[in-house]
Design a protein that fits this description.
The chain is mainly α. The protein contains three helices and no strands. Helices cover 88% and strands 0% of the residues. The chain starts with a helix and ends with a helix.
Length: 163
């Protein structure tokens, strides 16, 4: 009977040791699962933060692109208006509705004096050339002004001080 009791005690001790090992293994597995969960949550949070930053950057870039496109449209309109003003000036000069500045008119007076001495059959293309030149000069100046305004607006936009 003592043998049976010793055997039962040893068997009971073996079961206790085995169960303690199983519990220890289960605790380690739980700890590992919790650590893996924490790592995954940190990765998820980092990925969400990166996605939010990317979305904010994309929204800012889209806003900048829209503003830049608006500035480009304004520049193109001003450039077109400058060309129309140049064409209108040329037409007005030809029609006599506008006159050239005095320093440009001096060449007209000289040409008229020379024309009396020249043969009447030779056409004078210099008047048309002066009109075209004046129109081109005014148009180029207006286009340059439009370009400068457009570039200044774009520089302000890039610097963050857009209108």
């Amino acid at each position: 009977m003592i043998r049976a009791l010793i055997l039962a005690t040893l068997l009971l001790l073996g079961v206790i040791v085995w169960q303690r090992g199983s519990i220890s293994i289960a605790h380690r597995a739980t700890d590992q699962a919790a650590a893996a969960r924490d790592v995954m949550e940190r990765e998820r949070d980092a990925t969400r933060a990166e996605a939010n930053a990317t979305a904010a950057t994309l929204a800012a870039e889209r806003g900048s692109a829209a503003a830049a496109n608006a500035l480009a449209a304004i520049y193109e309109k001003e450039k077109d208006d400058a060309q129309k003003a140049s064409d209108r000036l040329i037409a007005d000069l030809r029609a006599g509705n506008q006159r050239l500045h005095q320093r440009w008119q001096a060449t007209v007076a000289t040409a008229e004096l020379s024309a009396a001495a020249a043969a009447a059959s030779q056409p004078d293309g210099r008047a048309d050339d002066r009109i075209e030149s004046a129109g081109r000069a005014v148009g180029a100046a207006a286009q340059c002004d439009a370009q400068v305004r457009g570039l200044q607006s774009f520089a302000l936009l890039c610097a963050g001080g857009g209108k």
